[in-house]
């Protein structure tokens, strides 16, 4: 069944069907096969609705809305102008700033999709204008946003911690090392890319212009203060921070800068709703699909067939990495963690692997998988937001995937990358 | 035949331990095989319940509090101080309670479910930033509760500010001080690492988290008498196993928490200290009767009688 | 970059959206489009207001218990109003690399196949969604804070599937009748260059 379902899905995908169709028909084929007919299809609808239930999903439309208001108004331009005055003369400076912004925003917001939108919408046009290739820009935004999985607070790590009974505090700290390593490597790639492709730089801005740019950006500079202060001050949850950003963006653009009208806000809300729907219907379909995989116990069968019980620790880690990587190529990361972690738990225990290390590796794989074709929330979000063809969006991804896979391999052989910080903090 | 059994917790939590014992017993005494589906693998609690009602799943474990959305009377398990506070009385209570063994099976049958067993998961504790010894200590405390009206009423009555927050945000919410407290069974506080972001655990004896294992009724009715016996025996054996497992569990959870975080304040309230919390229960009972009417009142009264019988 | 719609030929703002369908059907189509766009915009705005209200009420020590449930209702509304709207404006995500490489005749046939299968899938989901809602209604399940029947919040789901199905069916028809290749009832295939304007 697994083989047939994947064949159907890939064929439909390649022939240009709307992407929800391969997922829905893949799931429907599973339901049909499992129950020998159509009478249980209502549970496919149940699972589709279950997919869009989690409260944390609310952050996505809220950050899309806030980002769109900022971008159509003046907030985003003022912020980026300011950054450009400081780094515009450095080779690859804008790309490195984008990567850093994605990492920081993703770290606090906890949502990779929200990061793609909030950081990507204002920065992508600027990078295009600066001479970067669009596929590179899109791939950078998608992959740098996924570093957010590793930097606390990480929803993925919380779920892993709960399901596997691992200290969430230790997981959080363990994610920092690999997360920063990825940021450094991505930045290095950005600089190399800018030099090789000869991306032009701007002349160095004099201090007078820099000061003027900072003053122009003073109001929007409160965005990070509101998000970070709101969350760490115990006023809002990361999800609610998104809604607070909407309120502040409205205040700036309607009252302070007077750059948007109420009619504009209506249009922006509508476009936010549209993008949300296009992405969420895929999340819904993916959840129905994963229910089939889980119900049919397909992962258990595959693991039994490859004989995981006879493997050593490094092989087990490799199998775990591959399983999560492949799983997240098709299905939402949270669902993959919920389904696969209990299946691997016995073998992780029996070969004596460190559960914090396993959790870090899983989180990293989840990050890679979400940014890797064919399916992935962050890819969908980028397509929906930036209205670029699928192939344009994924063309630039491979170098990033290579870096990510390199870090995964490094983690398996040098676990200290993850475990060094927790060992300092907890021993 | 292969039967499917889904539950609301991880494999190593109490529901998982029960399910594994049930599976072991059924497989040892019959040719049937049982596949287990822990938390999240087939959806959330409401999803697996619907799947069991439709017969896609043969067995499901859902706590009566959640079943309250379907069977309002089941929310009686959210009324404080209706279950024995001492663990040695629990077995007696669950084995002999008329409410549990006679009244609830009928209510579940109306929903297409055969109630196989209700069992205790562990004492519910208050898990807060600062120590709690009296209701006044809960003043100004934003206490996370599920959005159930009775839990909300309970914590209002206890003097806290009940605050809804999705479970996924509770750990972070405690860490950043959006909320200052949450309640859960002790083992859950330990296994979900909530102690990492709180400072105190208070044993108030106000509840023992109860859960229920059910079979799809059509499936169960269609079993041969022999298979029905296999299922019932397995449910009984798993129940006894859980009571045994529970004995050391609270102490063990506490010891693990103490080892991981020695500065954690743990207060086991005395009878006098519990009295004001017990008084608050009346308000919650009134709310329960308001919500469920006569049939709720009948169950509530029966539970009280069963409690008296078990603790004498 | 503009993410809104009014600046694109392919996606006129709803106030200017004119159905390309004849007579009464066209008027009906216009009305549905209008309703969908209002639901999308209001759904998103209400979600922001609701979430902010929840933060404020918690800050002043009271609480809105139905906040999470209201957001759940809104997210369903937005998603299922949005899929129809997205179908109308040719905005559903697809991977067109292989498709784009085919000759126009083949593309036309393939587009008809794609839209017919998609329409049928949507109609089937509409049917199954009605079945699911009937089941939830029969069980009597209620939302725990609002204490209203759960099935109420799903009522828009089959409607959304149905409208989406109709849009794809009409697109199939349009591709049969007209010479050009249509991605939706009034969007020609292909991405437009002005979409990357700043
Ligand atoms: Na994060
Ligand atoms: Na992916």
Automatic annotation (TrEMBL), chain A:
Which lineage do the record's taxonomy fields give for this organism?
Bacteria, Pseudomonadati, Pseudomonadota, Alphaproteobacteria, Hyphomicrobiales
Where is the TRAP C4-dicarboxylate transport system permease DctM subunit domain positioned along the sequence?
8-417
Keyword Electron transport (UniProt): no
> How does it associate, per the subunit comment?
The complex comprises the extracytoplasmic solute receptor protein and the two transmembrane proteins.
- What job does the chain carry out? Part of the tripartite ATP-independent periplasmic (TRAP) transport system.
Protein's recorded name = TRAP transporter large permease protein
Q: Which InterPro entries match?
A: DctM, TRAP_DctM
**What's one Pfam family here?**
DctM
From TrEMBL, chain C:
- One Pfam family from the UniProt entry? DctQ
Membrane disposition: Multi-pass membrane protein
Q: What is its main location?
A: membrane
Name the source's superkingdom.
Bacteria
Record carries keyword Cell membrane: yes
Q: Which UniProt keywords apply?
A: Cell inner membrane, Cell membrane, Membrane, Transmembrane, Transmembrane helix, Transport
Q: The Tripartite ATP-independent periplasmic transporters DctQ component domain covers which part of the protein?
A: 47-174
Question: Which residues span the membrane?
Answer: 37-60, 72-88, 109-130, 150-170
Q: What InterPro entries does its record include?
A: DctQ (IPR055348), TRAP_DctQ (IPR007387)
State the compartments where it is located.
Cell inner membrane
The record's subunit annotation is: The complex comprises the extracytoplasmic solute receptor protein and the two transmembrane proteins.
Similarity annotation: Belongs to the TRAP transporter small permease family.
Functional summary from the UniProt entry: Part of the tripartite ATP-independent periplasmic (TRAP) transport system.
Name it. Answer: TRAP transporter small permease protein
**Taxonomic placement:** Bacteria, Pseudomonadati, Pseudomonadota, Alphaproteobacteria, Hyphomicrobiales
């Amino acid at each position: 069944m697994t083989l047939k379902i994947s064949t159907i899905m890939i064929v439909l995908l390649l022939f240009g069907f709307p992407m929800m169709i391969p997922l829905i028909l893949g799931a429907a084929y599973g339901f049909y096969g499992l129950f020998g007919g159509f009478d249980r299809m209502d549970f496919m609808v149940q699972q589709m609705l279950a997919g869009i239930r989690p409260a944390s999903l609310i952050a996505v439309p809220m950050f899309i809305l806030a980002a769109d208001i900022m971008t159509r108004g003046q907030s985003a331009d003022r912020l980026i102008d300011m950054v450009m005055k400081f780094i515009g003369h450095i080779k690859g400076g804008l790309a490195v700033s984008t990567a850093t912004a994605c990492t920081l925003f993703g770290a606090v917001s906890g949502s990779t999709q929200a990061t793609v939108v909030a950081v990507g919408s204002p920065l992508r046009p600027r990078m295009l204008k600066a001479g970067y290739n669009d596929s590179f820009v899109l791939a950078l935004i998608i992959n740098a946003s996924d570093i957010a999985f590793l930097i606390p607070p990480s929803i993925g790590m919380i779920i892993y911690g709960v399901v596997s009974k691992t200290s969430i505090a230790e997981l959080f700290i363990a994610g920092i090392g690999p997360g920063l390593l990825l940021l450094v490597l991505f930045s290095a790639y950005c600089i190399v890319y800018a030099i090789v492709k000869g991306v032009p730089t701007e002349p160095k801005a004099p201090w007078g212009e820099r000061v003027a740019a900072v003053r122009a950006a003073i109001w929007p500079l409160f965005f990070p203060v509101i998000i970070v202060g709101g969350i760490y001050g115990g006023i809002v949850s990361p999800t609610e921070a998104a809604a607070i950003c909407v309120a502040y963006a409205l205040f700036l653009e309607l009252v302070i800068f007077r750059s948007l009208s109420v009619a504009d806000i209506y249009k922006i809300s509508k476009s936010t709703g549209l993008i949300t729907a296009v992405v969420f219907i895929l999340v819904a379909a993916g959840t129905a699909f994963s229910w089939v995989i889980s119900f049919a116990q397909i992962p258990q069968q595959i693991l039994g067939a490859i004989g995981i019980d006879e493997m050593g620790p490094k092989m087990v880690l490799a199998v775990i990495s591959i399983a999560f990587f492949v799983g997240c190529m098709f299905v939402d990361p949270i669902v993959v963690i919920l389904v696969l972690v209990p299946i691997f738990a016995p073998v992780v225990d029996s070969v004596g692997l460190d559960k914090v290390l396993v959790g870090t590796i899983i989180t990293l794989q989840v990050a890679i998988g979400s940014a890797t074709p064919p399916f992935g929330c962050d890819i969908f979000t980028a397509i929906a937001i930036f209205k670029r063809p699928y192939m344009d969006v994924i063309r630039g991804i491979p170098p990033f995937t290579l870096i990510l896979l390199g870090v995964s391999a490094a983690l398996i052989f040098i676990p200290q990358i993850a475990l060094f910080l927790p060992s300092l903090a907890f021993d | 035949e292969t039967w499917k059994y889904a539950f609301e917790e991880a494999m190593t939590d109490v529901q998982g331990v029960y399910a594994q014992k049930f599976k072991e017993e059924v497989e040892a005494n019959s040719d049937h095989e049982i596949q287990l589906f822990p938390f999240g693998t087939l959806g959330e609690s409401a999803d697996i319940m619907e799947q069991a009602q439709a017969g896609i799943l043969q067995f499901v474990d859902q706590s009566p509090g959640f079943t309250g959305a379907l069977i309002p009377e089941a929310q009686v398990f959210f009324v404080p101080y209706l279950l024995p506070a001492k663990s040695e009385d629990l077995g007696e209570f669950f084995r002999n309670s008329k409410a549990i063994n006679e009244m609830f099976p009928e209510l579940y049958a109306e929903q297409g479910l055969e109630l196989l067993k209700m069992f205790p998961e562990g004492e519910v504790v208050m898990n807060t930033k600062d120590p709690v010894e009296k209701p006044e200590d809960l003043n100004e405390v934003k206490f996370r509760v599920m959005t159930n009206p009775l839990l909300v009423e309970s914590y209002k009555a206890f003097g806290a500010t009940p605050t809804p927050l999705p479970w996924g945000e509770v750990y972070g919410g405690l860490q950043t001080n959006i909320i200052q407290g949450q309640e859960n069974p002790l083992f859950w506080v330990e296994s979900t690492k909530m102690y990492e972001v709180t400072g105190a655990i208070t044993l108030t004896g106000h509840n023992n988290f109860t859960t229920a294992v059910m079979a799809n009724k059509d499936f169960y009715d269609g079993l041969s008498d022999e298979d029905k016996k296999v299922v019932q025996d397995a449910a009984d054996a798993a129940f006894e196993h859980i009571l045994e497992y529970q004995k050391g569990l609270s102490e063990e959870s506490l010891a693990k928490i103490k080892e991981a975080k020695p500065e954690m304040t743990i207060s086991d309230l005395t009878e006098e200290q519990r009295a004001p919390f017990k008084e608050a229960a009346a308000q919650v009972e009134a709310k329960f009767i308001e919500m469920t009417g006569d049939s709720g009142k009948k169950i509530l009264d029966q539970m009280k009688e069963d409690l008296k019988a078990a603790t004498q | 970059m503009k993410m809104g719609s009014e600046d694109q030929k392919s996606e006129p703002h709803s106030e200017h959206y004119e159905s390309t369908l004849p007579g009464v059907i066209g008027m009906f189509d216009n009305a549905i489009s209008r309703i969908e766009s209002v639901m999308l915009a209001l759904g998103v705005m209400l979600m922001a207001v609701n979430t902010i209200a929840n933060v404020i009420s918690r800050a002043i020590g009271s609480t809105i218990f139905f906040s999470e449930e209201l957001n759940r209702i809104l997210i369903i509304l937005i998603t299922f109003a949005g899929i129809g709207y997205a179908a109308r404006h040719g905005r559903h995500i697809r991977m067109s690399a292989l498709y784009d490489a085919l000759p126009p005749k083949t593309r036309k046939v393939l587009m008809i196949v794609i839209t017919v299968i998609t329409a049928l899938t949507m109609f089937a989901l509409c049917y199954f969604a009605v079945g699911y809602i009937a089941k939830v209604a029969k069980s009597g399940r209620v939302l725990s804070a609002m204490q209203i029947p759960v099935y109420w919040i799903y009522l828009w789901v089959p409607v959304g599937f149905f409208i989406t199905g109709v849009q794809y069916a009409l697109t199939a028809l349009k591709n049969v009748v007209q010479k050009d290749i249509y991605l939706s009832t009034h969007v020609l295939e292909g991405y437009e260059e002005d979409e990357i304007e700043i």
